[in-house]
C-alpha cells in the first residue's frame, strides 16, 4: 500500500507542528521517520491514521484520502503511540475498533 503526503501543515495555536511536508512511499518500500521530540512525528502519524485533521494539504493511504475515506482507512491501519491513551475525540466503540 502506498502513502502520499502533499503539503501537509498543522499548527497548535501559534506553534507550527508541521509546515508543507510532502513525501511519497511506494508500495513495498520501507520508510522511517525520525526526529527529536517536538518535531511533529506524532502529529503526522495522527493525521495519517485519521485521528487529526491537517490545517492544509492532503494525505492518502493507497487510493484513500485520509479525510474523505477515514472509515475505510481505520479498517486497515492500526497505530500504537509510544504513550498509549484512548482518544477523546473517538467514541468507546471507535477506540475499541481502532486499537483491537
What is the CATH C-level name? Alpha Beta
Report the helical percentage. 10-25%
List how many beta strands DSSP finds.
4
Secondary-structure-derived class: alpha+beta
Strand order of the largest sheet: 2-1-3-4
What portion of residues belong to β-strands?
25-35%
Q: Which H/E pattern describes the elements?
A: EEHEEHH
Radius of gyration: 13 Å
Please outline the major beta sheet.
4 strands, antiparallel
Distance between the termini: 21 Å
Number of helices: 3
CATH topology name, in short, is Rossmann fold
Number of domains: 1
For the record, what is the CATH homologous superfamily label?
Answer: P-loop containing nucleotide triphosphate hydrolases
Query: What is the name of the CATH architecture?
Result: 3-Layer(aba) Sandwich
Mean of pLDDT: 88
Which residue ranges are poorly predicted, with pLDDT under 50 across at least 5 consecutive positions?
A: none
Please state the overall shape, judged from the principal axes of the Cα atoms.
Answer: globular
Amino acid at each position: 500500500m502506498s502513502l502520499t503526503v502533499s503539503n501537509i501543515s498543522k499548527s497548535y495555536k501559534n506553534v507550527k507542528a508541521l509546515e508543507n511536508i510532502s513525501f511519497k512511499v511506494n508500495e513495498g518500500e520501507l520508510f522511517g521517520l525520525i526526529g527529536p521530540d517536538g518535531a511533529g512525528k506524532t502529529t503526522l502519524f495522527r493525521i495519517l491514521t485519521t485521528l487529526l485533521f491537517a490545517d492544509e494539504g492532503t494525505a492518502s493511504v493507497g487510493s484513500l484520502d485520509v479525510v474523505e475515506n477515514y472509515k475505510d482507512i481505520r479498517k486497515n491501519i492500526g497505530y500504537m503511540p509510544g504513550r498509549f491513551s484512548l482518544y477523546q475525540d473517538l467514541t468507546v466503540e471507535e477506540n475499541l475498533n481502532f486499537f483491537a
